[in-house]
Amino acid sequence: MDLRCHQLRCHTGSFQLGPVDFHLPPASCLALVGPNGSGKSTLLRALSGLLPSTGEILLDEHALGGMGTRQRARAMCLLPQQEEGGSAFCVEDYVLLGRHAHVGLFGHYSSHDRAVAVEAMERTGCLPWRARRLDTLSGGERQLVRLAAALAQEARILLLDEPGTFLDPGQRRRLWERLQAARRDRGLGLVLVTHDVNEALEHGDQVLALEQGRVVRQGAVDLLLEADWVGRLFQLPLKAASVEGRQRPLLVELSASREGSQTP
Amino acid sequence: MNSHPRLILALVLVASLAALPLALSQGALDVPLWQALRHPQSADALLLWELRLPRVLLGWGAGATLALAGVLLQALFRNPLASPYTLGISSGAALGAALVLATGSLAGLAQLPPGGVQAGAWAGSLLAALLVWALGRQADRQGGGGLLLAGVALNFTFSSLLLLVQVLADPSQSLRILRWLMGGLDGAAWADLPLPLLLLAVAAPLCWALARSLDLLSLGEDSAHSRGLRVGLLRGIIFWLSSTLVATLVASTGPIGFVGLMAPHAARLLVGPGHRRLLPAAMALGATLLVLCDALARRVIAPAELPVGVVTACLGGPLFLLMLVQKRRA
After folding, report:
1. Which residues from chain B sit within 8 angstroms of residue A70, using beta carbons?
2. Domains in chain B: how many in total?
3. B 245-274 residues inside an 8 A Cβ radius of A
4. Is 50 exceeded by the pLDDT of residue A263?
5. Is A136 within 8 Å of chain B by CB?
6. What is the pTM (predicted TM-score) of this model?
7. C-alpha dihedral (A52, A57, A63, A68), degrees to nearest 10
8. Which residues pair with A90 in a beta bridge?
9. Which of B225, B227, B272 has the CB atom closest to A97's CB atom?
10. What are the structural domains, with CATH classification, of chain A?
11. Strand, coil or helix: what is A240?
12. CATH number of domain containing B220
């Protein structure tokens, strides 16, 4: 699915976001970067229809504003940083809730819905825990379950709000393996909000940088290797450094001075 | 959650039906059911048919209604401490009823017109619901949780006004107001049954049909919306449905505490968080609890009676604490 955003503007209280323009082709990943309060999550919420906005959001040339809630859910799914409830559900019941946009008015699950949920659990490696309650799983396992629910929703675009925040490096790696597989196999498009510039570099195709609600840079993700502007954005001294075995260099932080912290 | 939730649900439903004959036979006078059925013209049969049966049925319906409203409001606010009385609807009803009782006395009426107190309670709840909805929506536009905050604030306001009415009313009317506030099923007649039971018969299947949507709402509004739920519409349905249920019930029985808070919790422990099972289980537990508490209220100081609201509160507090301890251990 093709996502286009044209002159998108959004106002929440005194905060103004926009104008934002971008084009996300199918199966590609747009990374949204910027310091705290720059408007990344606001943009994500505006894209998902949670916040009112002006301008145009087009999904395969269809205006998002003209879509019903269920139709929109079949096209796009938001994975918020944390979920407020639902921890008492067992994994299978939780993943099945992802089928809401596909079931009838009374929420009856067909055998097809159950098969889709099982497949989503299989893809994300959650099937062995299907009968366990969410609150008995680790943060990383829970994130995989939430991804399974998003895959069961069969949306074509996933809006990810800092998906790796509470995960250890191994869990983060496994989450990204599943996300990349879904991109490859299903043509899933990703809009990724992240504070981790290297995560954006590794998984993104395009980057859009925000500062105080305005777009300050956008283009191919290699833009992030220009350490000067990224450093100014986060107010940090950064440098691109090549690492053996990695396709792209990493951005590393240059410590101002370690002398002050060293014991004599 | 139990590993056999379907079996537990079936047992809970059977228990709620089994509580009916048990409660029918209990009271200041023990009435063996089979004797009353064999001699339909006897005094026992008359007592059973005209006094006990409508009371027990109203108790059953009231318990189920309070539990249903409790489940709905806990889902609406995603707060396990929400109860049918959180929104201030019952305080509005209490204020309306108290005003009718107090002004009737001031106007020198020896006896209030039939249904006067109920009408006052109804008008009070309607006013409360309209105010909470209007103020809550306004506050929601500026942030979140407006409905809950408006409900809690109006609850306090109505409760203060109620105290004022009680202080200003003459002592006998003040006592009547206090008695009404304790909630009770005494004096229930066949004529009191159709409206609350009909409303329950309409609301329960409607809520059951919305069970999956209620499950989604419990995940949080962002997640629910992202999965295709029309959150605003569902919130409106829950608010007005639970307000109507509570208003109708409180007008008939007065505010009966704890059932609407405890039954949903107990049901969640037994059958899990999914509303397809939670709704019938909570309603059955609420009905059982209230019917048995009312039977107890008739027996404890027989031939006098305790208001059933006092019994539910006395039993409800310790039971609720016990449940919390059990849950923590689990």
Report:
1. 228
2. 1
3. 268, 272-274
4. no
5. no
6. 0.86
7. -50
8. A133
9. B227
10. 3-261 (3.40.50.300)
11. strand
12. 1.10.3470.10
